[in-house]
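so my prof wants the structure for this chain in the C-alpha cells format not the other one, which i didnt know existed until like an hour ago. anyway here's the sequence
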Amino acid sequence: MFYRLKTDFRLSIITLLGASAILGITPFAVFRFMQGNHLAGLVDVTILVGIVASVSHAWLTGRTERSGLFMAVMTSSSAVVVGAVTGEPGLFWVFPCLVTSFFLARPRLAIVINLGAILALMAQVDIFRSLVQMWSFAAGAVVVSACAYVFAHRNESQRERLEHLATIDPLTGVRNRRSMDQELALAVANADRTGLPYSVALLDLDHFKKINDEYGHSVGDDVLVDMVALTQQNTRRTDHLFRYGGEEFVLLLPGTYGDGLKTVLGNLQQILRKHLKHPGGPVTASFGVAQLALGENVDSWLARADAALYQAKASGRDCIIYADPAPVRSETAASREECSLT
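here's what i got, hopefully its the right format
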C-alpha cells in the first residue's frame, strides 16, 4: 500500500484529500443531523459516500485520472448544493473545493469545473446579501482559481519532467529498469485478471564489449541507439522496450505467444542481422524468451527468460532460445536452427 502511495502521485493526492474531506465533513454532517437540518445533513452524507467511492475506485482499478475528475466534479457540485441549502455560510466551502480541483483533475479541466461552480452559485442570487457581495465573491473565487491554476500547471510540468528523468534512459530514449519493473508487475496483474497472454524477450548484443574496446564508447552508443530504433520500427506500439542494463534490453509483448511470438522475434532477429552495423561489420543479438505462465510472478518470469538468454549465449550467440515449457524439445530445436555460430 505504501509503495503505491509513494510511486503514484495522483493516487496519493486522491487518498490524502479524500481522508481530509472525510475528517472535515463528518463532524458537520453529525452536527446538522443533531440540529434537525436533515437536508444539509443528507447532502454531507452524499458527499462522503461519493468521496469514499472515488478513493475506492482509484485503489481498486488504478484509474486515478478518472477517479480524480469524478471527485473534483462531485465536490464542486456539492459545494454549490451546500451553498443553496445553507445560504451564505455554505459559500466558505467553495474555496477549498476550488483549490483541490487542480490537484484532482488536469488544470484545464479544473478551470472549467471551477467556472461552472462559480456561475452556478452566482445564479442563486438569493444566497447573497447584495450584488456587491456576489461580485466580490466571484472576483475572489476567480483569483483563487487563477493562482491555483498557475501553481498546478507549474507543478504538473515539473512532475512530468522528474518522472521522465526517473523512468527514461537518457541515451536511447526508451524506458529504464525502474519503469520496466512497474510495467511487468502490471502485466502480471492484468494476466491474472483477464487471462491475456504476455511474453518477454531479453535481448543482448553479441560481442558488445569488443565494439567498445576497439572502436570506443561513442561507437557503442551509436549501436545501442540504432538497435533501439530498429526494434521500435519493427514492433507494435503496444510492445514495450526497456533498457535492462548495458547492452541488455527487455521487450514486453502483450498478446503475443506461440507461433506468432516466433514470427515476431524471428523477423526482428533478421532485421538486426541485416541492418545493425558498426565500423567492423554487422552486429547480432541473442534472445532469451519466456511466456508468462498462469500464476507466475515477475521474478520467476524474468529468471526463465534470463536462463534462456544464457543458453543462447552458450549456444554460439545470434540465437533465440524459448524458455516456455511446452513443447520444450520442438521449441528448443526450432530456436537452434536460428543460431549462427560466429
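also thought this was worth mentioning. The longest strand covers residues 198-205.
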